[in-house]
Every structure is written in C-alpha cells, then in structure tokens.
C-alpha cells in the first residue's frame, strides 16, 4: 500500500505555506520532512493524517482518497503528534496499555513496563501522567511504538525531540524495524538522526516554499 498526495496546498491565515506539493511514500520507505520553523511540517503531517484539510489537492492511501474511507484509513495509521495524546490521570504504564489498545493492540502490563524500560523511564511507570516532565511524557507516548507494527503508516512529528542519545537510537531502531517490515514512515526532526535501515528520502519544505 502506498501513500500519495497530489498537488497539496496549505493556507494558514492569509499565508500559503506550500502549494503544488506531491508526495509519494512506498512500503519500506521513510520520508524525512525538513524545513525551518513555521514552514509547515506539522501542517503537512496533519493533512497526511486526515486531521486537517488541504486548501487544494488530495491524499490517497492504497489509491483511495482518504476522505472516502476515513475509518479504514485510520485503522492503518499511527499518528504521533506534538501533544502526545496522553490522559493526565492515567499512570504511565496504563497510558502505554491504553494507547496501544486504541491502535488495536492488546498488551500486558509487563510489556508496557518493558517498553518504558527501553526508553529509560521504567522508574516513572507508576506515576500519573500529570506528574511527568515534558520529556518523560514524550517517552511514555513513544513507548507504544513497539506495539504498532500492525499499522503500516507511521506519521511521527518530532519523535526525537527532548530525547537523550540512548532513547534516540532506540526510537530510530524501532523505525528501522518498521521499515524492514514494509512499513511506511513520514517524520519530522530538526536533528540529524541516522536510521539503521530502510530507504530514506528528504522533503525540504524550505525549497517547496521558495518555489510556491
Ligand atoms: N491553526 C492555525 N491558524 C493559523 N496559523 C497557524 C495555525 N497552525 C499553524 N499556523 C501557522 O502555520 C505555520 C506553519 O506551522 P507548522 O506548525 O505547520 O510549522 P512547522 O514547520 O511544523 O514548525 P516547527 O518547526 O516550529 O514545529 C506557522 O506560521 C504557524 O504559526
């Protein structure tokens, strides 16, 4: 299954962030979206996820406009956004269990603990989300990734921000494993992070904006 976007344009207020943007991502490919602050990386990921509408153009998954079958598309999607989508009152380990369940995967508490451990935050597993730092929340949100191999399309907005070297290499490894399993990944990062495998291409929104 392939992700395609045709002739996308994005308006924010009275400003056009990009236009005439075509995107294609095949199984086993990662598309790294780069660009200065405010060029529209998050806006593009939200459009690709079906969370925002483009002012022009369309997004297709497996050849079908995602607006025609939104539920089917969402079942194929793992969207990781800036806000982490965690519930403040849940414990960290419960958050991993529930966010995995929302994405269709039932996991045991010990699996959630192991995933937190690999991201270096097992010690906060019994704390409620509201008591965590921003970096800890991010790790809790990322801890679901090992359980998302069944959702082929991963759209990851700044997955490496606020992580230390060990956690970055762990997340890069998870992305690489997903690509090895024919997953598709579109991600943003301001950091230069090498993926251990997969075919990575770069989409530079600075260049798109300059041409648009
Ligand atoms: N809801 C909104 N209404 C109006 N303008 C918005 C809205 N959301 C974002 N913008 C503007 O659109 C532009 C692009 O924002 P976006 O978050 O997509 O950029 P980005 O490339 O992801 O930036 P960063 O690297 O800082 O995360 C910014 O100028 C932002 O202020």
TrEMBL record:
Record InterPro entries: AAA+_ATPase, ABC_transporter-like_ATP-bd, ABC_transptr_haem_export_CcmA, P-loop_NTPase
UniProt organism field: Sapientia aquatica
An annotated Gene Ontology molecular function: ATP hydrolysis activity
Domain ABC transporter intervals: 3-210
Gene3D superfamilies, A to Z: P-loop containing nucleotide triphosphate hydrolases
Pfam family, one: ABC_tran
Record-level GO BP terms: cytochrome complex assembly
Record bears the keyword 4Fe-4S: no
Protein keywords: ATP-binding, Cell membrane, Cytochrome c-type biogenesis, Membrane, Nucleotide-binding, Translocase, Transport
The protein's name: Cytochrome c biogenesis heme-transporting ATPase CcmA
């Amino acid at each position: 299954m392939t992700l395609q976007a045709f002739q996308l344009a994005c308006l924010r207020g009275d400003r056009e962030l990009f236009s005439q943007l075509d995107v294609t991502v095949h199984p086993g490919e990662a598309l790294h979206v780069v660009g200065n602050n405010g060029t529209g990386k998050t806006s593009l990921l939200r459009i690709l996820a079906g969370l925002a509408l483009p002012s022009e153009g369309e997004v297709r998954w497996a050849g079908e406009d995602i607006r025609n079958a939104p539920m089917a598309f969402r079942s194929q999607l793992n969207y990781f956004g800036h806000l982490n989508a965690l519930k403040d009152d849940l414990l960290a380990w419960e958050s991993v269990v529930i966010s995995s369940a929302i994405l269709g995967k039932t996991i045991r508490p010990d699996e959630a603990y192991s995933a937190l451990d690999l991201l270096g935050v097992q010690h906060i597993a019994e704390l409620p989300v509201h008591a965590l730092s921003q970096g800890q929340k991010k790790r809790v949100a990322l801890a679901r990734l090992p359980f998302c191999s069944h959702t082929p399309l991963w759209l990851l907005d700044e997955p490496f921000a606020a992580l230390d070297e060990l956690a970055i290499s762990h997340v890069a490894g998870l992305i690489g494993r997903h690509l090895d399993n024919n997953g598709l990944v579109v991600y943003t990062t301001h950091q230069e992070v090498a993926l251990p495998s997969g075919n990575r291409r770069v989409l530079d929104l600075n260049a798109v904006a300059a041409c648009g």
